[in-house]
Amino acid sequence: MGIEQKAANLGFATMRLEQAVNWARTYAMWPMLFGLACCAIEMMAGQAAKHDMSRFGMELMRATPRQSDLMIISGRVTRKMAPVLRLLYDQMPEPKWVVSMGDCASCGGIFNNYAIVQGVDEIMPVDVYVAGCPPRPEALVHGILTLHEKVRGESLKTWA
Amino acid sequence: MNEELQPAVTALKERFDARAEEFRGQTTLFLPSDRIVEACQTLHDDFGFDFLEVETAVDYWPKQNPRFHIVYQLYSIQKQLRIGLRVPISGQTPSLPSLTGLYANANWREREIWDMFGIHFEGHPDLRRILMPHDWEGHPLRKDYPLGYEEVQFSFNAEEIDQDKPYAKE
Amino acid sequence: MLDQREVSFNELRHLVSERAIEGETMLLNMGPQHPSTHGVLRLLLELDSEIVVNCFPDIGFLHTGIEKNMEVKSYEKAAVMTDRLDYLNNLGNNLVYCMAIEKLAELDVPPRAQAIRVILTELQRIASHLVWLGTHTLDLAAISVFWYTFREREMIIDINEMVSGQRMMTTFFRPGGLWRDVPVEFEDAVRQFISIFPKRIKEYEGMLSENPLFLERTKDIGILTSEDAINWGVTGPSLRAIGVPHDLRKIEPYSGYEQYEFDVPTHTDGDTYARYLVRMEEMRQALRIVQQALDNLPYGPVRSSNRKFVPPPRSELGTSMEAVIHHFKLWTEGFDMPEGSVYVAAESPRGVLGVFLESDGGPNPYRVHWRTPSFDNLQVLPVLAKGHLVADLVALIGTTDFVLGDIDR
User: Fold this and answer.
1) CB proximity A153 to B under 8 Å
2) Nearest CB to B168: which of A107, A108, A121?
3) Phi and psi dihedrals of C335, rounded to 5?
4) CB of B82 within 8 A of CB of B73?
5) What is the Cα–Cα distance from A4 to A15, expressed in whole angstroms?
6) What is the reported pTM?
7) Strand partners, C389
8) Could you give the number of structural domains in chain A?
9) Testing the interface with C: which of A84, A92, A103, A117 to mutate, by most C Cβ within 10 A?
């Protein structure tokens, strides 16, 4: 109360470091351009003009994993693609988050057979699961906002 | 049967000992496996069937012997006619000549049949797996290959499935 | 599964030319994750500085095993999986599958159902071409077209949602007709779309057709001769851009297409620009078909009344014992099909889409094979790409308009 008031009168904004770092990470999260199948079309529709994801900080989609923070796995992951996916995840620098978009990425979806990985959390840790086949762009935006809330609650030691 | 198909069917019956069947207005000819390339050459040169539309296989294990039937559908762009061919093949070491010399798109289609059914094509320039990973074992679309079904998690069996399912921690 | 096996060079030796082995040309991997390969496609390129000497597509990264999975489901349940094959042409895949079942079982489809099928399939064709245009020009760095085409596509998707509740994977066409009748707002929504869309096509053409940069990047790129095209099994706009007027809607009309008047656009050059012009004109012709079908929409039932295949309405279940028995059979096991095999083909936005359906008399399909157009259209890419620059390869991938779900199934 006292010191914040004094600092504010002098023109200093005060915030905990954790809050500041999380705030910055939330508002400029760049997803990696990783569309696999049908959900990718809804992700592109989410990026397009009607449901605009750049309002939430995801202005561009970086094609290279080295410059992206968020991996939206949109579409079915096959056994042939799984090592590639893990390689891309390992190439992303920390801090990194994963959103599993759609039923096929979350749990294998309607394809319960030899060729599809039953849920991408067999390969990598997932932060938010978005259900739907394919999920509406609004549902994807809701998933992103849930991820933002989760990031705001992270402690400084998670990625330190 | 379409009357325009009749000369082609008659020619194949005489020269290659084919058996014709008609079902729902579509004609199918059964041919022996060693004469398929000659038969397709005849259809291509003499009757104008210059387009290979479908090349796939059906597995009849364990009901029928021979086990596999290779199915072709040839199409003629000029005359707008379609004809189907079927080649029965037995299952021990299934192998038949390749059509890549005649129709260029038979290349990937025969690779897919090799991948999914294990049927070898003689004379194919590059027979390796196309849809499955290159070190996969087994041929998925055969009837004795399991579906790979995984037990669905409901709330009553969630914990027991969780113990065996691999989860990545980091 | 997660270990990476080193592929030795010897396995691929027979594919690459001698110059690569000596080290004169470079082997570059355009990997599964790439912004310009629309989907997960891996291309192994052999480059001589910037010129492509050869390119080897490596597919299978999206192989879902749909053909095997459909063998364990009943016919109507397997229809759900057909939407996800060519995921830009959902209703088109549905249509071919239902046509195959109707042909094998000799099931009738009422005229109102046929007309609504035509309207929705043609709107889907327009939506697919809009995605093609947006992503193709996005790769060629004309990014603004992407925003405009997706805005139009949203209108078509809204019509889908009004009719069935789902934006993309609707499974609206069922064997025997449609799932249910369209609501009253359907006609107004489609008429509104018809009234605004021609101006929008003019907008896109105004941005692209006379644009010197676009012409520079698409004229004389990827010329295909008609002998090559027919030998490689290419169909669809790629074949029509060479001059061969092969359109299954005119040659073997299905679902009432013979009643509607429309042209099949063709061109003679066979390069990327010709394919662009053919697809733009196809969008206009599709709109024409939608207008005619909507003007002449007949009244009547939307699903066949053959109770062996089509469930009875709920009102009948209270009065008729037979209806209850039919309902029970359809809901537990599914309908039984006669034995035999058929092959049915239709025209998807990418080419000839065909279903080979074989039944052994039971409630599950014995073998379903999908003849997909993108499989052959991609196979011809190495022929198109020889001698072109890597930047032209990006334009060629866009103009071939393949969808990986179609190729890998």
Assistant:
1) no
2) A121
3) -80, 150
4) yes
5) 9
6) 0.92
7) C51
8) 1
9) A84
Do the Cβ atoms of C233 and B52 come within 8 Å?
yes
Q: How many domains does chain C have?
A: 1
**Do A116 and C65 count as a contact with CB atoms less than 8 A apart?**
yes
Sorted by sequence, the CB contacts under 8 Å of residue C74 that are 6+ apart come out as C333, C334, C335, C363, C364
Q: What is the CATH number of the domain that holds A113?
A: 3.40.50.12280
CA distance B10 to B7: 5
Q: Does the beta-carbon distance from C65 to B140 stay under 8 Å?
A: yes
Residue-number span of the structural domain to which A146 is assigned: 33-151
- Amino acid in the structure at residue C353: L
Residues ≥6 apart with Cβ < 8 Å to C168:
A38, A41, A42, A134, C83, C87, C90, C157, C160
pLDDT averaged per 10 residues, chain C (length 409): 52 64 78 78 86 87 90 90 89 92 90 92 93 90 88 91 90 90 92 93 90 88 87 90 90 89 89 91 92 91 87 86 89 88 92 91 90 91 88 88 88
For residue A39, what are the CA distances in angstroms to A23, A84, A116, C87?
28, 19, 15, 9
CATH code of the domain in which C78 resides: 1.10.645.10
Closest of C77, C409, C381, C362 to residue B56, by C-alpha: C409
Tens-digit pLDDT profile for residues B49-108: 888 999 999 988 877 778 888 999 999 888 888 889 999 888 777 888 888 888 888 989
Cβ within 8 Å, pair C61-A40: no
- The residues that bridge with C43 in the sheet, in sequence order, are C30, C57
**Interface with chain B: mutation pick from A110, A118, A120, A159, highest number of B CBs within 10 Å:** A118
Residue B23 is nearest to which of C252, C340, C360, comparing CB atoms?
C340
On whether residue C138 sits in a domain, the answer given is: yes
